[in-house]
Fold this protein.
Amino acid sequence: MAFAQETKHLKGKTGMKDLTVGSPFRCIIGFWLPVFLGTLFQQFYNMVDTMIVGKYLGLNQLAGVGVTGSLSFLVIGFCVGICSGFAIPVAQAFGAKDETSLRRYVTNSVWYCAAISVVLTVVTVLLCHQMLVWMNTPEKAFRYAYNYIIVIFAGIPFTVLYNMVSGVFRSLGDSKSPVVFLIISSVLNVILDLLFIPVLGMDVEGAALATIIAQGVSGVVSLIYLIKKFDILKTQKGDWKPDMRYLKTLTVVGLPMGLQYSITAIGSIVLQTAVNSFGEIAVAGVAAASKVYCLISCPLEAMGNTMATYAGQNMGAGKIDRIRKGLYQSTLACIILSVFILGLILMFGNELSMLFINADEIEALEYAFQYILASTIGFPLLTFVLTVRFTIQGMGFSAFAMTAGVLEMLARCFAAWLLPAHLGFMSVCVANGLAWIAADLFLIPAFFYCKRKVEGKLNLICKETLA
């Protein structure tokens, strides 16, 4: 009762939201909108790096930054995934109204994230040169790729900090606060980009440095806000002591989510290697198209993150049928959005690519349009990947999501290794669609399996209670 009263009190004060009550669709849309805006702002400041690099520095520098996309996703995606995974037990504890477990999941996440940050930073900084060699990075773009990605890897602690704090915000139903901090980060990133490159004459490392500084400031400010405003997280004696029970749960849920991102990224790296074989112009075209893709997929990505929190809280509350209803409604909404996005690309695809590539780079623009059009046609397939996978993760079945990541990786490897001889550059364009089909064929049946398994456990608990 005390927990419920505190939650009700804090809802208006800090934006905490209980997603286990009220209309499922209204809860989802109300939570989704701030997440979407936050995702949009995050892509905005990522795009600014690419725009300034492409416009002020040149095509080879753009290709260098583009080459690092899949490599960055391999490492940074693991950080994002594992932080999102750590937030799932917090959301479940919040839904179950278990204040003690909630606090201890948060504190044990802090210890876990600190260790991960140190290990990943050291390993990636030492190996990034060799990883670019393994990717067959074009010679003209190699130096720029290395100078950019080593700065990004050196800033991993800031990346982990921001994503850990954002995960806690979302697990408590607060999707608005992270948007505020992303706006701060976005504005600062733009200012630093323009300072470091056009004014101070820095090369691609200036863009990377601007991103890391902006994310670091956002992470620190959001952490201070979290500590001061959320009374529910005020720790007590013993909360900060590492506890193997909580660390084990965090590992079981968080590690597969992190690995799922990295496994998917391995497929993207293999695919990027295939892109590299078509030369610097194709690399630059795909780099621009990838930025457009990240922008237009924001609504779908935000729905995925929303469903993780929604499913997590309702799982903690034991409301499985509510999870099913929310999944159906969110999936239908995203399919409608996918059709609208395809229309935008058909009308303005070239213009969006020109944000990153000069209009006279005709061949690069052609590569970009082919890639983004083929990917956008597959967005209904991507919808199921995101909504179903994140719902399964929120329910606590992270290993199933990791399996879907393996299937995506295998499909992209197939497209990169076997199709170029037959389809040429089009093999790169259809790779995403093939990956999403492979994941969907597994995820959709997996959801119904997870639902039946959870319902069986709940029924058994009810029978034992009545007995």
About this structure: Residues 112 and 436 are 31 Å apart (CA to CA). Residues 426-466 form the longest helix (41 residues). Residues 1-13 have pLDDT under 50 and may be disordered.
